[in-house]
Structures are given as C-alpha cells and as structure tokens.
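anyone seen this seq b4? input:
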Amino acid sequence: MIDSIQIGNTKIGAESSPFIIAELSGNHSGSKERALELIDAAAEAGADAIKLQTYTPETMTINETSGLFSIKNPKSLWNGYSLFELYEKAQTPWEWHKDCFEYASKKGLIAFSSAFDLSSVDFLESLNVPAYKISSFENNYPCLLKKVAATRKPVIMSTGASSLEEIDRSVKILRSNGCEKLILLKCTSNYPADCKESNLNAIASLSRIFGCPVGLSDHTIGIGVPIASVALGACVIEKHLTLSVGDDGIDSAFSLDSSGLKTLVDESKRAWKSLGNSTVKIADSEVDSRKYKRSVYVVENIKKGETLSRSNLRVIRPGDGLSPYDLENILGCTAKTDLKRGTPLSWEHIK
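predicted toks r here
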C-alpha cells in the first residue's frame, strides 16, 4: 500500500490536507489573457495546482459529423457540436503551455496537464512537467498509458465511465511500464454530473483494491460532493475553474468561480482537519468543559445529621460535585456536617 505520493515539493496522501487542482479546461474561451486570469484566480483561491489539457482536434478525432461524431443529446451542454468542433473550441493552444506553466509557477502553483496522445507526451516532456493526468476517456488507451508510465513521473488517472475490470487493466499497464507513483480519481463522467451518481463510498474500495491514494474528479454543481469526499478519504480534489459561472466558457456550467474555489479550498482543509483518528476519547480542548457537566448538588440547606433526599439534592450543572451515577447510593444517607444550598456534594460530606 502506497500511502502518499510527492509531486514537486508537495506530499499528497491521507496525512496531508487535500491537494486541490484547478482544471482550466476550455474555460479560457480561446483567450490566452483569460487563461492567465484563470491562473490568477486559482492562486488567489489557494489551490495547489492548475491543470491544462494538451490535445488538438486532430489528435482527438477526425472532422466528421456522421453517427457518434456529432453530439445529439438535448441534455448535453454541447448538444449540436461535432466532436471535432467541440475540441477545436475547447483546446488550449500548445504555444500557450510554456507561458501558462511559468506564470503558474511564479504564483506558487504546481502546473501540469492531461496528455491525450503520444505527441502530447513528447511535448509535455519538453516542458518538464512534474506529473501527468490521464482522463477517464483515455484510460483505455494502452499506448498512451505505456508512454506516460515510462516517464516515471507521478500519474493521476480518472476512473469515470470505467468498470472495475477496465480500471484494473489500466493500472496494471501503468505499473508494469514504470509507473510507481499512482493516484486514482473517482469520477462520474457526466457534465454536469448528478450527485446521486457520485458513489463516493467507492473511494475506499479503490484505495483498498489498488493500494494507492485516491481522490475525486468532480463535475457536480457546487462543493457538497467534494467536501463529502474528504470525509471518505479523498486526498485530491479536481474541479473545473471559470472566471464566472454565467460566462461562455465551454465548461462553465459545472465549474467554480474563484470565490467558490476558495470556499472549496478552505472547507476541504477544515473537513480534513476534523477527521482526526478513530479513537473515542475526550479531546484536549474538552477537559476544561467537563466541569460544566452535571453533578450532585445541595439545593436546600441541610443540617448535620439530616437525611439526604431528592428534595435537598439534585443533579444539575456544573460538574464539580459527585457523579450523577452515585445519586442512588447517596439517598437515605445522612449529612456529616451542615451543608449550604449551592454546595457541590462530595464523599466527605456524607456519613
């Protein structure tokens, strides 16, 4: 079992707060200036990394409109596009990559990309990326998996639209070709995804089965699902970033703006800190609070030799008297001394 992976100087795993990746995707809308603004937004929000997507329409598909080459689904954000048209609109020009990576580094962000074909790996290697992402729709591409694994750099692979058998096959290809640092991302490949289909309990299953850290690539609306994933062991959260949810970015409808991303960063860290360990015990900060639990108190003046009863004793706050569990053993005993109303009862008061 590999508990943690290091990318750059950052350790990713259960012992570290969630690693937050801001996915720029095609939300730059064809503007390099806007791409740099997205990097600014990621840095201001406190993300750990930004991620690009490295492909061209020609490396993804062919310029064809028949059959499944065209998206014909009224529920899809991209209904009416051919695949070629969609990738042409959403692509990040390769000539931007170097400037984007360098700008992100200046902002204190780790910068890497999803490689979609063999040529993109060669290109990203020329830029000395610190890690690779494999998307859900490329995790069944053996040549790509082998080439990425051979770089011996950390690999983050999404598992959307994949059976357990398919994931297992992909993981075996990666590991048998040099990948020793692997992170899997639970993913539901729908855009936007329905939270009811997130199946976050599978995070623990993936970690147990494949012996590696597991995170979440999330396409749902908002931050509820990723925050829940932290409680279930997610050590990475990947979320699409946009300048404005209402703008014309190709993925904006299921993306977070800078404010939303900052909330995700802050709340995921808070969620992670809250996990603690599985030991049931009194927290250090609770020790002082214990004095405000209930205990046995004198509630009426009691004379020496008088019988202790439910009328002159009560279980009330604060907690510096005898334990409430002792009350039944005390009733019927007599007072060893005069006791004033408001006295916390102790054994030395009882005959």
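The first strand starts at residue 4 and ends at 7. DSSP finds eleven helices and twelve strands in the chain. kinda curious what u guys think
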